[in-house]
Design goal:
Number of strands: 10
Radius of gyration: 22 Å
Strand content: 15-25%
Order of helices and strands: EHHEEEEEEEEEHHHHH
Strand order of the largest sheet: 2-3-4-1-8-5
Shape: elongated
Helix content: 25-40%
Structural class: alpha+beta
């Protein structure tokens, strides 16, 4: 695990209170998506914010350099280390206080790890955070873990012990091709060189015949969301299993066991 030196600060704020602030309102004007991304790369700070609670509240997620005294521990903060960070969006720069409350700000250290290239060893498989430690900006850590359980349910339903090894191999093939890219997308740096980093890291997992999100795409922009949310783990598992079962008689005959 690599400590990035950044922390992820999260809190909730009334949406209307944010829009009523003349300094902050310009940031949200003419945004193409209700998921908004603001940054100050020089200061090492970025904010991802989106509506929740039926549009009444905005979740504010701040990625910022961790104060030296805090260390790599999760916890509740009484104040935000960069409450008055200069942010820029739509060509407008503003000193945004971000409406951070004095209490109720949670901070989490950002630790990263390169994607694994193996999820199965013997008859043991890893899923969830044991398999893919993701930064939170795509919001996919738990979702990908749930996908893996759905994949296992399809592949292992009603099988005998003689099929365990082949199904684990199929599980690993399916999940490396899915978890690997989402892991890379999630850990993509929120900086101008983030896209180049992503295109290099994703090579072991990506089918080169498929287009990547276009250059300049931000980590939570529509091209990334299309890739993430258009996938049905159980449906893809059923397709792969059907193809696997078609090949089994041929493979068995070729191996000389029948």
């Amino acid at each position: 695990m690599l400590d990035t030196g950044l922390s992820f600060f999260r809190y909730l704020a009334p949406a209307q209170e944010i829009y009523d602030d003349p300094e902050i309102r310009p940031l949200f004007e003419n945004q193409q998506s209700e998921i908004c991304f603001f940054h100050n790369f020089a200061a090492g700070a970025s904010i991802v914010t989106y509506l929740c609670e039926g549009g009444k509240t905005r979740a504010i997620n701040v990625f910022a350099k961790r104060p030296p005294s805090k260390g790599a521990k999760a916890g509740k903060q009484s104040s935000l280390c960069s409450r008055n960070t200069s942010l820029e969006a739509n060509g407008t720069k503003t000193e945004a206080p971000a409406k951070a409350p004095e209490q109720g700000i949670f901070s989490y250290p950002l630790l990263v790890r390169d994607p694994l290239t193996q999820y199965v060893r013997g008859k043991v498989a890893v899923i969830g955070d044991a398999a893919h430690v993701m930064r939170p900006q795509q919001g996919q850590g738990a979702s990908i873990a749930i996908e893996s359980t759905g994949c296992l349910e399809v592949l292992f339903n009603g099988i005998g012990k003689e099929d365990v090894q082949s199904r684990l191999a199929l599980f690993e093939k399916l999940r490396l091709g899915r978890c690997g890219p989402v892991h890379v997308f999630s850990n993509m740096p929120l900086s101008p060189d983030g896209y180049a980093w992503m295109t290099e890291k994703i090579k072991p997992f990506w089918d080169p015949s498929k287009p990547l999100p276009p250059p300049g795409s931000r980590p939570i922009s529509l091209p990334f969301r299309d890739f993430i949310y258009s996938y049905n783990a159980q449906e893809e598992s059923r397709k792969a299993l059907a193809e696997h079962q078609k090949q089994m008689p041929l493979d068995t005959y070729t191996n000389g066991t029948k």
